[in-house]
Amino acid sequence: MARAAKDYLLLYLKGVSMGGADVIPGVSGGTVAFITGIYDELINSIKAIDFEVVKLIFQFKIGEAWKQVNGNFLICILGGIVTSLLSLSKLMTFLLDKYPIQIWSFFFGLILISSPLIFRDIKKWNVVTILSGVFGIVSAYLITVVSPTETPTNLFFIFLCGALAICAMILPGISGAFILLLIGKYEYMITALINFDLPVIIVFVIGCFLGLVGFSKFLGWILTHFRFPTLALLAGFMIGSLNKVWPWKEITEYRMDHLGNQVPAFDKSVLPARYMEVTGNNPLLFQAILFAALGILLVIGIEKTAAYLKSTN
């Protein structure tokens, strides 16, 4: 499709938003892609990367390969994600450290309003669609409460970790970073990046790339042939993941970070009164409601803007 310069700028900003979400444990870039209306195009563009594209590249038919994979779209999204990861990581870490209730409330509102918008696109309901939604809710919730496990450190398993994490990252409601934490490799990969452990990093990136290309083909196929049950499943993932972004938490388990410091590893959602009892901190209920409302209004604003731009094209 033909796009103007302002459209590519908007795509870049959507990529920035996806990267910002991926910085947050429990929030998925796939969720943002769904909210901003680029999910289908993103999946279809990624799944277009195949052996035919590789063949075109080796034949120096770069233009044809670029067009086949929707290169302008992908480079804008990828550029935004990389920019965000490089620039927003410290900011988001700072905000989560200093204003956790406000930030988590914002994301809670954002995800809460997004699920009904996806359900609205389901034009035909049946038993399979309903069961898909229920399965999505239950499975995503269980992922947020399961405890971590000890896993191997050989390169083959690191490859599998990369493939699994990137698949989770493009699913709405499931965080790739959180999946790495669950399988005991989050801190391991952080340490590998800090120490510039090239074999581990390269194998992980290869796993990410192959997992992304392979899984996007499956996801694209299932969205084409079973669209409504798949939408219900993805919306269910988002609802189930609300437990992870609930603003008030009680720490239940700690872990050691790469510097040897004890940091929270797992927690459970509690009511504001219990949070105040356990931590002695003000639950900031009014601010939480305000920031959740801001998240809701942001999604509604994005949807209205997208609808307006579509009607004017």
How many strands appear in the DSSP assignment?
2
Roughly what is the average pLDDT, rounded to an integer? 81
Please state how the strands of the largest beta sheet are arranged side by side. Answer: 1-2
- Rg, rounded, reads 20 Å
Strand percentage, roughly?
A: 5-15%
Q: Give start-end ranges of low-pLDDT stretches.
A: none
The geometry reads as: globular
Series of secondary-structure elements, N-terminal to C-terminal: HHHHHHHHHHHHHEEHH
Number of domains: 1
- Main β-sheet, in a few words? 2 strands, antiparallel
Total of DSSP H or I helical runs spanning 4+ residues:
15
Structural class: mainly alpha
Distance between the termini: 11 Å
What is the helix fraction of residues, given as a range?
over 70%
